[in-house]
Structure of AB hydrolase-1 domain-containing protein:
Amino acid sequence: MHTPRSLLKRRVYVPYARIPEGRMLELPGRGATYVTDTPGPSPDSPAVVLLHAVGCTGLLTWFPSIEPLSRRYRVVTLDQRWHGRGIQSPEFSLVDCADDVAAVIDALDLGEAIVAGFSMGSIVAQRVWRQHPDKVAGLVLCATTDRFRSTLAERSFHAAMGVAMGAARGVSRSRTAARAARAAGRATNRTLGIAPLDIHDWAVEEFRSTSPWAVGQAVAALGRHHSRPWLGRIDVPTAVVVTLKDKVLPPDNQIALARRIPGATIHDIPAGHASCVMEAERFVPALLEAVNTVNARRRDFPRRRPTSPSSSSRTSESA
């Protein structure tokens, strides 16, 4: 019988890249999460914060991109809540995820950062700007959308997921179930202290570090996301990496989102939804081009408004 590792080695290409060391970072009043902080070529290198896809970790989504980006930028990854070694909490919220990112930016003293996200990470990146515009120097949105219920199939899927996960959230409010959920997250967190034999073993352990229950909650939250009403107010340089062969998020929706953001540039690649790793040879050059474009345009986007009030952090996911 084939094990997950043997199947991965036989059937799935995983590119080799050096995996940076990370550490647990305490975010005051929020909890602790796992971060990597790779320095750039100089102490004042611009900072790029990378936000991962659903069911992944910061490193699993971005490990092929970190070293190429670090030749010019300071590169930070983090595990978002309920993923990998991210914050464990009674409920999952995209609003909380965005606040977590802002807390990481403060804890690492990044000032303003370019925030880049892939799939779910791109949704969180949008919310970081929405909730904490003073911390965002630019956005890079990869394999993204402004809403998930754009087709009948998507609406049916997310409606069913929302009902199922709503019931699960009700159960999780009990003290016993909440403890069980946190214990499940810790039990699946195999990455701490792992010395993998090869990149495939490491990838399997990273993938296993997020429980299926957590993925279901995150997918249900994504189904409630709707940023279309405020995309036109984004006032930082933005680049959108469009995955033209994407079977999860339609390319037309990705392009439509880019056109709703003032001045956004489009960087398309003939690749699918897992291209950040599985087609890294196509994705990484497009990501570098997108980040470089955003960084070069920063001076053309003077900040036009003050910091959003702290109450913005409690804005609903669909607001």
